[in-house]
């Protein structure tokens, strides 16, 4: 069922105090987290135009955007869309909705990608990949002219990576313990644990690319994220990590008081 978001107060501003500019204070609404995700997703789909090549994100928030794109195609309100899915799961969902699909080989430049995130910092840096799709997401979103991130307000953090929640790193399965230990030792100074992600029946979780994921649980602010990113990527055995630095062009945040849009400057 489509959720109406029109009554929401929508701001487009630089700071989290943007709600202050309303003439009368917005009233909190009792919405579930999933309803907030859907509101952010529907708002992002307003950026979609007929004829676009679209990066289709993965996760419980992006799922709403893909549903909405399918719905608008079915209604004839969008035409000639080509979707580039960021995971096998999204590929299945898009196919079930009749969204025409392609890949980066055929479409190396993407008009717009829409995806969720696990954490967003004030500079629009992200943590992604707690659903396991970071590599394809980074390839596709990195090839996008515009990358719109959709989140509920619980995803906003002061700095990424210091929450002790997972910072995922995709690694090759070969001697994964060796690579996990190198990662742990690299980030040791920030209070870091490194755990192999487990999937069904306690076996290693395997990504769409046949790799494993080590979840780094970092306790402290890592400071220069670019330097940390470079150091992680220099480790043999590492395929990619879930910090998406300076990639998002816009973040749409749905909260109890309304929707806020933050743009990269
Ligand atoms: O691998 C998963 C993706 O990066 C997701 O976009 C991210 O984990 C956010 O997922 P959700 O919208 O379910 O919170």
TrEMBL record:
Signal peptide range in chain numbering: none
Pathway: Carbohydrate degradation; pentose phosphate pathway; D-ribose 5-phosphate from D-ribulose 5-phosphate (non-oxidative stage): step 1/1
EC number: 5.3.1.6
Gene Ontology BP, a term: pentose-phosphate shunt, non-oxidative branch
Gene Ontology molecular function terms on file: ribose-5-phosphate isomerase activity; transferase activity
GO cellular component: cytoplasm
Pfam families: Rib_5-P_isom_A
InterPro entries assigned: Ribose-5P_isomerase, Ribose5P_isomerase_typA_subgr, Ribose5P_isomerase_type_A
Keywords: Acetylation, Isomerase, Phosphoprotein, Transferase
Catalytic activity: aldehydo-D-ribose 5-phosphate = D-ribulose 5-phosphate
Function: Catalyzes the reversible conversion of ribose-5-phosphate to ribulose 5-phosphate.
UniProt family annotation: Belongs to the ribose 5-phosphate isomerase family.
Stated name of the protein: ribose-5-phosphate isomerase
Organism: Arabidopsis suecica (Swedish thale-cress)
Classification lineage: Eukaryota, Viridiplantae, Streptophyta, Embryophyta, Tracheophyta
